[in-house]
Design goal:
alpha+beta, Jelly Rolls, Arc Repressor Mutant, subunit A, 2 domains, 5-stranded antiparallel sheet, 4-stranded antiparallel sheet, 12 helices, 9 strands, 18% strand, globular, disordered N terminus
């Protein structure tokens, strides 16, 4: 006779409910360094979201539809999305029947990707979405839960990130993590992201990279982007993450990503993503969801 299973209740479902419970009470959970939180109690539609590093999005509640190169994909609760660098993604986040959308987002650092390339993994498929390996889900859940209880040293954070990468390479589905950004663009982005609010100029970046302005301008052009566009992409993407994962005011976020004028930040944000910062924030409002949907009840809000 086979032994009866003694596995504990799903750590993923426990993690999801714990995070949602905090969000319903307007509290942002503490997460591991580099892990972003994306949530909403109403539909979110974002266009042309730039993927500046290989990115893992783990959908925990609701569903995500996303468009890459005119092809639409979808991921349901529990599924993992693997996005390669150099991708512009149109996104629709849909809450589930209980009115919840929740996902965790982890972008690989340059060091993590370099480490992965040195591992010389076996042939890897370019897999866009999948049910993650059980070990991946367990490891990720433990990491997030631990971050809510104590401060995790950077060395252990790095080990945890690479453990997740290892689960994917072991299954042969990490092909999208192996694509690299063009070399000069990657160097410029690293400098910008080191101090996103700094008033970066092409001349300053060129000096840091030990090349002339004209050479840097020409090399970025060969890689298909201008310095100004790259700088704005980085600032708006950082702003998007802060709008989703913190309770900071829009004025504070605008200043922290290098915009002296909140109205200018809001204007550029809307032009790029298709909605304003305040419209995105409205999708986070529990009461707004309840007003819109009348008597629909959600666990932890109405009993």
């Amino acid at each position: 006779m086979g032994q009866e299973s003694t596995l504990p209740p799903s750590s993923t479902s426990q993690l999801t409910e714990r995070l949602l419970e905090a969000l319903r009470h307007e509290s942002i959970p503490r997460l591991p360094e580099g892990v972003g939180l994306f949530y909403g109690f109403d539909t979110q539609q974002l266009r042309a979201v730039p993927i500046q590093a290989p990115t893992l999005i783990w959908v925990l509640a609701g569903s995500k539809r996303y468009c890459v190169d005119d092809s639409w994909y979808s991921a349901r609760a529990g599924e993992l999305i693997i996005l390669p660098v150099e991708t512009g993604v149109h996104i629709t986040n849909e809450p589930d029947e209980q009115g919840d959308y929740l996902a965790l987002c982890l972008s690989l650092t340059t060091e993590d990707q370099s480490w992965l390339l040195t591992q010389r993994p076996d042939i890897q498929r370019a897999c866009w979405s999948l049910a993650p390996p059980e070990g991946f889900a367990l490891s990720y859940s433990q990491w997030v839960s631990l971050a809510g209880q104590c401060t995790i040293p950077e060395g252990i954070q790095q080990h945890r990130r690479r453990e997740l990468i290892g689960w994917l390479t072991a299954q042969g589905v990490a092909g999208n993590l192996l694509r690299e950004a063009p070399a000069v663009k990657r160097q410029v982005l690293q400098l910008i992201q080191s101090d996103i609010a700094y008033p970066w100029r092409l001349s300053t970046i060129a000096e840091q990279l030990h090349m002339s302005e004209s050479t840097l301008h020409r090399q970025l052009g060969r890689e298909g982007i201008s310095f100004r566009h790259l700088l704005e992409q980085a600032r708006l993407l950082t702003g998007l993450g802060l709008l989703q994962g913190t309770r900071r005011t829009i004025m504070d976020i605008a200043a922290s990503v290098g915009y002296q004028s909140p109205s200018r930040f809001a204007e550029r944000f809307r032009q790029h993503f298709g909605l304003s910062p305040s419209e995105l924030r409205e999708t986070h409002e529990v009461d707004g969801f309840r007003r819109k949907n009348g008597s629909l009840r959600r666990a932890g809000v109405e009993r």
